[in-house]
Amino acid sequence: MKKIMFLLLSLFFTFNTAFAQVDVISGMGIGFIYSPSLNSYLERRADGELNAFSTSAEFYAEVDYTISPKYQIGVEYVYNLFDFSSSYSGSYTLSYIHQKPSVLGYYVLSGNGYKFKFGAGVGLRILDLTENISIAEDFNAVGFGFLVRAQGNTKLSDNIYANIGSTLRTDFVGVPTNNVGNFHEDININSLSISVNIGVSYFF
Known about the structure:
Elements: H1 2-19, E1 22-34, H2 36-43, E2 54-68, E3 71-86, E4 92-111, E5 114-132, E6 136-155, E7 160-172, E8 191-203
């Protein structure tokens, strides 16, 4: 029995040493967001007709762990910023911070100096919204979201890689609320978005 346990532990640590690799990734990007409920609301306060897709800035950090030569699991944190302003009623602004932590699974294709990753994930979505018409009002919402992603990494030096990727997300945060009630007219902030990101990866 002891010999079997020793053999199993030896195999486990050999496997873990052979394949263990941690990827640490960070960067920034631009997102194109389709949020029809919010867009319809903002059009009535805009100086002109709005595009169906709004733009936003995002910053991200990710840690992925190799479980086999072809598969990785990971966690990421995305910090998304949206801002809108117009001269409606003198001055109007609406902005929000959308935090998007997720867990992911990847299929990996790698070779000398490159690594391609294709994956999907799910996670919590936390939104903090501020609207200013004559006074500023704060609202928040918590929901969930899904994503699919393709990412390419190309070697810059021994362990450092440049990465570029694209992510398709669908996020369900619902109607923001505060201590007074729901956001005006029960407008929800559910959205479909696609983002393009660039950053730096460090492979341990």
